[in-house]
Amino acid sequence: MMILGTGPAGLTAAIYAARANLNPVVVEGNEPGGQLTLTTEVENFPGFPDGIMGPELMESMRKQAEKFGATFVRGWVSSVDLSQRPFQVVVDEQTTYVSETLIVSTGASAKMLGIPGESDLLGRGVSTCATCDGFFFRNKPIVVVGGGDSAMEEATFLTKFASEVTIVHRRNELRASKVMQDRARNNPKIKWVLNVTPVSVQSESGKVSGLEVRDNETGETRVIPTEGVFVAIGHQPNTGFLNGQVKLDAVGYIQTIGTTTATSVEGVFACGDVMDSHYRQAITAAGSGCKAAMDVEKFLEGSAFQDWAQLAETLA
Ligand code: NAP
Fold it and tell me: For the chain, what percentages of helix, strand and coil (3-state, to nearest 5) are there?
């Protein structure tokens, strides 16, 4: 069996599958360990009362999977053929693997604004990870773009470093939960620029110098001076390589059947952020990885999912 992706979901699936003697082959993409490797301290993963660094947690999970016999392949899954079993998985456009079952745990990636200057200045003032890069903006003004929980969380976190944090959002109303909004609103270091559209990221000497925004009411543009632009506008599930062969929801998350990890394709399972737009936590991803491995085991031994096609009809 194969597992695609090595975040908490994929690695937990690998631990369970290896212990069940399913000999999992695990493909690590361009970001081995997933999003947790982009964070610093993880304080809410049960079992670590003093917290644990994200990369360390992921390295431990990987070691645990290896200890039980999981094999790791480094590479990018360029395409899959799910039209018949065994499935074909092409890594780096050159090596083809075959597998009777697949667990897709390819996670989600940060969405970008797609405005001029943004991608060129990534890592030179533009960031998608406050916990990774906040430290570099000590006593400097920072802009956070977005109106959801992520933006509130990142802005609040960044006030530890920044001289001030400006939240830039495209509407007057925030999408964030009340508790997260209140926390940000009560923080004296947070300023608000609402109902504007980001137009471009400005630079001087190759580094970010400001964010140009257009007022949605007046149409006027202006530049908010800043050395750091943190983009926190949500995530996009990494499902492009599936090329429409598995049913996705409107945003692109993999749909799963009922409370299981089974997808619309018999033999293909999904777990973690690639199928969960709601909870998106390391622990919930790990939990669903466990479910996926158990589902594969039951499927292969023929004690569950015999009526897969019928079950899949319940998907939209
Ligand atoms: P989100 O809820 O989808 O919010 C994305 C925000 O970015 C929205 O305010 C959206 O504006 C804005 N946006 C999207 N595309 C944009 C664009 N092209 N240009 C400008 N603005 C854009 O994403 P999220 O904040 O990452 O949260 C995702 C999920 O994780 C949510 O369920 C959230 O509750 C959860 N989460 C929870 C916590 C926590 O509880 N600790 C922390 C982080 C995330 P509109 O509002 O106008 O659409």
Answer: 30, 30, 45
